[in-house]
Design a protein that fits this description.
The chain is mainly beta. The protein is built from 3 helices and 13 strands, in the order ββββαβββββββββαα. InterPro entries: RmlC-like (IPR000888), RmlC-like_jellyroll (IPR014710), RmlC_Cupin_sf (IPR011051).
Amino acid sequence: MTRVPEIAGAYLFEPTPYADERGFFCRTFDADVLRSVGLDPGAFVQDSVSRSVRGVLRGLHLRSGAGEAKLVRCSYGRIFDVVVDLRTDSPTYRNVATFELSGETQPTLYVPAGCAHGFQALTGTADTSYRIDRPHDPAEDVTIAFDDPELAIPWPLPATSMSRRDREAPSLANALAKKES
């Protein structure tokens, strides 16, 4: 486990995959490891997975109200992952942290509630798994423009595809106004 210095309360859990001629085995969730950093493993209520192709960009997404904490892992392929701290009371407010998550090494990123999250697929196929601590409520969805100049995120590839919601996302300033309402 590694603390993410750019984002207060964020962690990167790096397991040890066991590989042999058959492939590999890796424990991707361990309640005791979460407890060791003060996280409640029982708080996670929903698992989801997305499949993306190279260049697809998803995000930046967060939830208004109480927010949403999540565990994010690339289970197949590789992704460029981004977290933006949007908690006004955080010592790392407005910091950006980037990671490369890979299905080969299976790291899991803990994204605290109140942080925006997004990623871009770096490989032909990239499967991304999420474990979320609250049921999804679309009425609380907030999206921020992936290319907001204030954030200056260094996306590694041109965005080849994204949802309409992500393409039409407002600036950071406008999204923060919605998040607070």
